[in-house]
Amino acid sequence: MILLLLACGPSGIVLAQDTADTALASDTADSGDSGEVIPGDSTDTGESADTADTADSGPPPWEPPTPDVVVDCKGGADFTTITAAIAAEPSGTHIGLRPCTYAESLDFSGKSLDIFGIDGPETTIVEGNGRGVVVTVADGESVGTRLAGVTITGGGGGGYASAVYVDGALLRLENVVLADNERAYSVFWGEGSFLELVDVSFHDNKVSGGGYGAITVDNGSLVAERLTLDCDGGDVAFYEHNSSLVRDSSITCSGGSGVYVQGGELHLRGSRIDVSNVGVYGEDNDDTRNERMWLFNSAMIGSTAVQATYMHVKADHDVFYGSRVGLELSRPHIDSYVTNSVGVGSSCGIRTDGASDLFGWNALEHNGNSCARDAFSTVSAPPAFVNAPDDLRLLQTSPLIDAGDPDKDAEDRDGSRSDIGVYGGSEGW
Prior knowledge:
Blueprint: E1 2-9, E2 12-19, E3 37-38, E4 69-71, H1 82-88, E5 94-97, E6 100-103, E7 106-107, E8 114-117, E9 124-127, E10 135-137, E11 146-148, E12 151-153, E13 161-167, E14 170-179, E15 186-191, E16 194-203, E17 213-225, E18 228-230, E19 236-247, E20 250-253, E21 257-262, E22 265-269, E23 272-275, E24 278-283, E25 292-296, E26 299-309, E27 312-316, E28 319-330, E29 337-339, E30 342-344, E31 348-352, E32 359-360, E33 363-364, E34 385-387, E35 391-395
Parallel strand pairs: 4-5, 5-8, 6-9, 7-10, 8-11, 9-12, 10-13, 11-14, 12-14, 13-15, 14-16, 15-17, 16-17, 17-19, 18-20, 19-21, 19-22, 20-23, 21-24, 22-25, 23-26, 24-26, 25-27, 26-28, 27-29, 28-30, 28-31, 29-32, 30-33
Antiparallel strand pairs: 1-2, 3-35, 34-35
């Protein structure tokens, strides 16, 4: 593998070349140092900083509101079924669910209701019969429509979605688990809708062959926070065609790709995508190239970590860890930029067919002639992660420490010069 050092000086760009093993060297240090860990924020004394990252803090405790009416399938409440409560209560009602397994499928029927498990998803189950979608919100439901504190399971039987189907409506899922749903194109399908997913987990679902994946957002928008998502057997974990904001989330896929953005926009922040194929793929039209892909303090891992075509890419403090290519940009918008980031790949760390002057303060690993070789202030040498790609903290010997943009606006949390990678900058892990 060839590692390139590019730096700007009075005489122009200086190129230094070094060699390393043919295997990826990003998780090794040059010598047998003490192995002290600097998770992005370093101090002059060389002491280790706090090693906790944002994903370790977990979601806040579940605090349901006071219900207006209560459902208990065992009796002794206002209703014994959720369906009966939906039929009887007007929009704006807070419907509390006592712990129980509710064997029914739900349709909000155009009402903006707040339905929630009083004790959370561990004990409050909404279970379908395996012959259709479990939850339907598709009749113009508006602000205040929420399903929270429940586990949704038992969906299936074909169609667009097995667990949740939303069309032309607003829906917030909060503290919800979607598990053991199957036989549909997606687990969650939203079309022409405004969607919020907060503290939502997808696991142990099955998507029909040729299905998009766990989440499909078509001609609508999604805001997701602390999302835990696997691809559930689909081609991708998350397909979107419009606009999505995903932050502090984890997306995995053992046999497919992570996020597929087709003619839409993605804002990814503080998140990790770890898949076997392409981590994030985005594509716009040649005539516009206006669709944006914003990637901030995020780690993307795959055969190609990120691949974008005709996109307006803005990336800062990221790790693009590809077994083949880290970041690949084809004909990007002229105002694209990639800064304070790491590109790792056996072929190229960062590769583009032009406009590579838009890259700065980056660390690159590659051995191909088509890589972005004329970026400025590029760091050479193994990044010295603790154990890439699983642990992307920096060893004390890492050349990425205090190697990012020296501008004060890019400083690490401790006020030192920015580190390169996900632990650097004001929003570092």
